[in-house]
Amino acid sequence: MAEPHLIGEAMTGGYGRGADILHGCTLSVDKGEIAVIVGPNGAGKSTAMKAVFGMLNLREGAVRIGGEDITHLSPQDRVAKGMAFVPQTSNIFPSMTVEENLEMGAFLRRDDIRPTIEQVYDLFPILRDKRRQAAGELSGGQRQQVAVGRALMTQPSVLMLDEPTAGVSPIVMDELFDRIIEVARAGITILMVEQNARQALEIADKGYVLVQGANAYTGTGAELMADDEVRRTFLGG
Amino acid sequence: MTARGFLLYAGMALLIVLTGMFQGWNLALTILNMGLISAIMSLGVNLQWGFAGLFNVGVMGFVALGGLAAVLVAQPPVAEGWNAGGLRLLGALALGAAILVGAVQVWKRKIGGRMRALVMLALLIGGFFLFRASLDPAVDAIEAINPSLSGYLGGLGLPIIVAWPVGGLLAAGAAWIIGKAALGLRSDYLAIATLGIAEIVIAVLKNEDWLSRGVKNVVGLPRPVPYEVDLQRDEGFIATAAGYGLDPVTASTLWVKILYSGLFAVVLIVILFLAQRALASPWGRMMRAIRDNEVAASAMGKNVTARHLQVFILGSAVCGIAGAMMTTLDGQLTPGSYQPLRFTFLVWVMVIVGGSGNNYGAVLGGFLIWWLWVMVEPLGLWAMELITSGMDADSWLRGHLTDSAAQMRLMTMGIILLAVLRFSPKGLMPER
Amino acid sequence: MTDFLNAIVALSNFVLVPGAAYGAQLALGALGVTLIYGILRFSNFAHGDTMAFGTMATILVTWGLQSIGISFGFLPTALIALPIGIAITGLLLLGTDRAIYRFYRKQKAAPVVLVIVSIGVMFVMNGLVRFIIGVGDVNFADGARFVINAREFKEMTGLDEGLAIRTTTLITLVTAAIAVALLFWFLNKTRTGKSMRAFSDNEDLALLSGINPERVVAVTWLIVAALATTAGVLYGLDKSFKAFTYFQLLLPIFAAAIVGGLGNPLGAIAGGFVIAFSEVLITYAWKKVLVYLMPENLEPSGLVQLLSTDYKFAVSFAILITVLLFKPTGLFKGQSV
Ligand SMILES: Nc1ncnc2c1ncn2[C@@H]1O[C@H](COP(=O)(O)OP(=O)(O)O)[C@@H](O)[C@H]1O
Ligand SMILES: [Mg+2]
């Protein structure tokens, strides 16, 4: 089997000098596909995402992108390698306008960012109308759009999303999922954590169930949906 | 106390003894006395910062209130002043207090927002003019009486030792007011608020001549110990002094200082004992638990703000006691001499250098930093003379450098504070 | 009618003009405090002494310029020296950050630790200033004293009251306006300025976006040096320079920054003027204005001064406490909780 585009392999580690939270956790996603991580609260999903993005030190394991070992790169350097991350909380610059948020997303780029901003506005038309408004004043769903838009500004090859639909209404959630599929169709690899496991697994090429910092189940989205055990314990029957 | 602690205390004692041997016992005792007072201030701040993590930068204000207590308790009352307007003045003050209490009561009523604010504002503004209208004539009358010598109301004429606890009470009262307003907010806000209250206390002392004679100072406060001149006339004293091979003048100054040392040491020991008991008590443990994790403590149902208010009042009271003792030692109240760098921030250096959270450390810091504060100037001068000895005797730079040596103190204190924070953040005697 | 005009002129002369100048000085000081709070996240107690240091540096350069015969016509020479003073102060602040603050930043120390560290820095800076220039009063304003003096104004208008506008007042207002305009242009329009705001808003996300924190911090110190030195020099030109008066400005400056909302630059400016005008209005002896407005028989006998000028701290303080009690995030929403 060919090496996946992004892989965090057998990751073990925790915050600072604290106890390990991840125990040999492996996550991978192929180019242009969507991988979804689900699991109970406190399972270490966010921690695993941060580990892949280099925001905590791994004691064991490795992270590779396109075959290149990036385990020891800082988050900023991973941005330069084509990765982008939307954290679960405080993922926008609240006092800055929508457009400034996007500009900050492209901070490392020195070329013309106008076309990318237009692409983001095409993806999320509401942001075009609100571009002069402070991002902190927007509704929850709009804020998530700003957050995703900001991450897209570096023109990443991998987009990592930590619960992008947290706290938004069901209608907005469906809308966001559609947009995420659209992003994936454009060839961007997506690794995301989702609370709404059912919808997420429906659109997923690959699914991971994390429990206590370790892989409990792995399979395609459809396989996981079909697995009785997973259904009973994580998808509510 | 640990072995390290004993060593450090022994070293400190040695420093004072060496000072006595090389620069005279008079200076050594002067340093010792202010060191004792500094140690008490340091204990007060340690109570707030070391126990509870409260950031009080208004130490100067509480110290000055203690100083005011010395005047109000020990000076003889000025009968002419009281006759001229004493009662009217008390009435005006009572009126002012009533207006404030009234405003707070209005605010506490749970009636319609805007109306309540307007009533309170009207009460405060109207009340202010009423207050001034009744206060000003009384003040003028009092201050008009023999302004060059008195022009104030004087005190109660009680023994000055009584002023020490009273100073603590005054400081505690001020701390209660300020704590009510600023505790429970962020730590920097408490800092700014206490910085402000300290400046206001000093402004009151400088301006309310009827109270403290303002910048005209109150001098010649009664003393808890005999006067040197009296000792020098006392046959028995002269004989004893001669027995030690001392002339009466030297002996009397030393003896007076030793008496002060004894008094201060008793107070220090009592407060240190109480602080140690408090630290080990359930109350002290809870206080430290709150300091280390405020969120967890309040989640466990502890009333963090109420506990903080207690410890803030206690610590400020200790500073007030020290302030009263200091004014007693000086024998005068000079409002113009209160500088925040000396009376607030220096005490902070004492606590941090000594070891915040450790009472013995705070006391040691008080002695050590005070000793340095006094010694840096001669040492600096000596160093400057050494550095500039190669220069032309009347060169401009040489003159400037030797003149500026006096300013070395603040820089030295800053460098010591920064060095301790960086290399030994727990201080000389760390909290266990 | 002339009574009314006289009252207006007296009011402008004693309250509005001095209040505006003082407000501008406080606003510049508060901007420095608020920027440090927003980016480095602590209340910098050394700010007053940074102002003193910057002013001292500018004074030394001014003396140097004067000694080689350079002056600035009717404007004070200190204005030419100001950029050099700013540069020197900037170097000092960058050095301080390198040697002292950076260590604690790397450790992610609690804000209160940084505040205590800043107290140490305050001692050192204060000592440095006293060591170099001494503790005496230094008057370094040269050039014309008045743009318009009271006598000229009276002759011009025929009113009883004169309006004197001192050169330093005018310079204060103009310089402060330019400084504020530059600052806001920088923060809102330049890439670096925006990255500073982003860092202040959400430090972690700024890091994820590739913003270099050390650069943001360095730029912040340089801007703070510019603001503090400018504020200090304007204050010194207006009054005079004394090593310890700047320490005393700390209280009104903090009050201004908190009243406006810590971390919010717009708030700092508003707060500066609120504090300044409150101080001036409450400590001004209103008799001079009221004599023109009241009927003869109701004219006030006293000075009609609400509080003696020595209580001006009490005014900052009262406003501060009121805001803390009723609106802890300040008039404009600050960052603080
Ligand atoms: N910054 C942090 N420092 C220390 N522990 C953390 C931190 N963030 C999360 N944790 C701990 O890591 C574990 C996993 O948390 P998280 O990864 O956020 O779970 P999830 O996203 O699956 O809900 C939890 O026990 C949590 O308490
Ligand atoms: Mg999570």
Our measurement of the CA-to-CA distance between the termini of chain A, rounded to an integer number of angstroms, reads 33 Å
Instruction: Give the SSE order of chain B as H and E letters.
Output: HHHHHHHHHHHHHHHHHH
Beta content of chain B comes to under 5%
Shape of chain A: globular
Helix content of chain B: over 70%
Structural class of chain B: mainly alpha
Protein name (chain C): Branched-chain amino acid ABC transporter permease
Membrane topology (chain C): Multi-pass membrane protein
Keywords (chain C): Amino-acid transport, Cell inner membrane, Cell membrane, Membrane, Transmembrane, Transmembrane helix, Transport
GO biological process, one term (chain C): L-alanine transport
Note down, in words, how this protein is organized.
The complex is a heterotrimer of chains A (237), B (432) and C (337). Chain A has a domain of 124 residues: P-loop containing nucleotide triphosphate hydrolases (Rossmann fold). Chain A is built from ten helices and ten strands. In chain A, the strands form two sheets. A six-stranded mixed sheet of chain A has the order 6-7-8-3-9-10, with helices on both faces. Chain A has a four-stranded antiparallel sheet with strand order 2-1-4-5, covered by helices on one side. In chain A, α3 packs parallel to α6. The mean pLDDT of chain A is 91. The model of chain B has no long low-confidence stretch (mean pLDDT 90). By secondary structure, chain B is mostly helical. Chain B has 18 helices and no strands. Chain C has 14 helices and two strands; from the N terminus they run ααααβαβααααααααα. The longest helix of chain C is centred in the first third of the chain and has 39 residues. Chain C is globular. By secondary structure, chain C is mainly alpha-helical. In chain C, α2 runs antiparallel to α3. At the B-C interface, α5, α7, α15 and α18 of B face α4, α11 and α14 of C. The structure holds adenosine-5'-diphosphate and magnesium ion. The site of magnesium ion has 3 residues of chain A, from α1. Chain B: It is a multi-pass membrane protein. Chain B: It is found in: Cell membrane.
